[in-house]
Amino acid sequence: MNDSRELRVGEAASTTSQLTVREVVIDLMRRHGMTKVFANPGSTELPLFRDFPPDFEYVLGLQEAVVVGMADGYAQATGNAAFINLHSAAGVGNAMGNIFTAFKNQTPLIVTAGQQARSILPFDPFLASVRATELPQPYVKLSLEPARAEDVPLALARAYHVAMQEPKGPVFVSIPVDDWDRPAQPVPPRQVSTRVQPDAQALDQLGAALDASERPVFVVGSSIDRAGAFDAVVALAERHNARVFTAPMCARCAFPEDHRLFAGFLPPMREKIVGLLSGHDLILVIGAPAFTYHVEGAGPHVPEGAALFQLIEDPGVAAWTPVGASVVGNVRLGVEALLTRAAPRLRALPMLRAVPPVATPGEGDAPMSTAFALQTLASLRNAEDIVVEEAPSARSVMQQYLPFTQAGTFFTMNSGGLGYSMPAAVGVAMASPGRRVIGLIGDGSAMYSIQALWSAAQLRLPITFVILNNRRYAALQDFAPSFGFGPQDPVQGTDLPDLDFVHLAAGMGVRGERVTQALALRDVLSQAIASGETRLVEIEVA
């Protein structure tokens, strides 16, 4: 749109000349700070990008799962919705795994996809998306295909506000290819609030119960970091001398893991959760489900005699919480309201968390332990460096040997779907200029979205991809006994021999190095992280 009708930054759209859908949408995107378009091109999307504005950036992903993963990381790190353009039904299908992850991550995404021209849709044309709005459901908050071309800008405006309203999440708009050059009216600027204050009476009841409790414990989750409530939650825990556990499957850093009150991580297993929370008379779950389970369990959901309270922005999650009282509303506003209450009586400090033993490099030519690899990484990482992780079998080890102490420094997927974190690291790095980003990825996970390396290299981002290569889907092998497998029983489809990540990286323009000896790891990692370039370090672990 380099002609005289181009809408400049901050300008209201003019009604003196006929504007097109494309021009009005570009102005709308600019107004909402969505000047990066994460995409993979197709014929049904091309008209959007004719005369592409110079203040916009097209971020190319070589596969649609990578496109959505990059956009998710960018949106999480900026806090604003990211704009995605996919190629008809095939592109949405390729992206669906990471759309599901975005839904579970509560990431605001505007997912658009091309549709065939309206005039030939009755004839089942090539590339037509039949029942396009149904394809991404139920993992979008809103799914639209506007009835008329001139309705496209209003549909996208509505989609943006829905995506940004807590609980945030992805939305979908299908746009026929011939709509972009049709006439359209400007969309008036407007504001829509995105947070809801928790009910004051419900907060009073929660606060009174917390003040009266003898041995409170907090369980903290991803919404704390999303809402910017990190410091407020620390202050509330310190006020009550409450032990603090991280919720099962938490996707963000919700509390400093070196804090005196931090007690560790809850597993996604009912009986183990009850055991770890026993001895407390009040459980306050902040910004997390109560609780996320991975396997079947039996018995109570909380210890006998303990009262459960939950502060959560998602009414859907509050509705299925099995016991206790849920207060629905923005987590930061709720915690800050609790901090205005009179200081409670002083409680004794809880027991300190056990310190893990120092990991040793091992002996001989045997692969190093994951603990040693992560301990080494922790010694080189600055507290403000960002880690985007997807190494499921290493998660429990990471929780011991790679602590996170600041808000906005840890991201992972909340869905269990692989192929998210490698492209998400690209998006996080784009949103965080001047920050070092480390992608901590398992070998199996990396192969779901390895094309993200190419995008990182093309964008010249300071990301170090650390690949923990144990030559298998170790998480599945470790989990097999829970489903009746014996110690020596083979687990089909879990061995991954002969993957060479150094050569894979080289083929996408990324310099890589493999480390097989524990004593060489520190120098290789240090050089990669300090390089300011996109690098890959493949670590062979036991």
Automatic annotation (TrEMBL):
One of its GO terms (molecular function) is magnesium ion binding. GO terms for biological process: carboxylic acid metabolic process. NCBIfam families: PRK07092.1. Keywords: Thiamine pyrophosphate. It comes from the Bacteria. This is Benzoylformate decarboxylase. Residues 20-120 form the Thiamine pyrophosphate enzyme N-terminal TPP-binding domain.
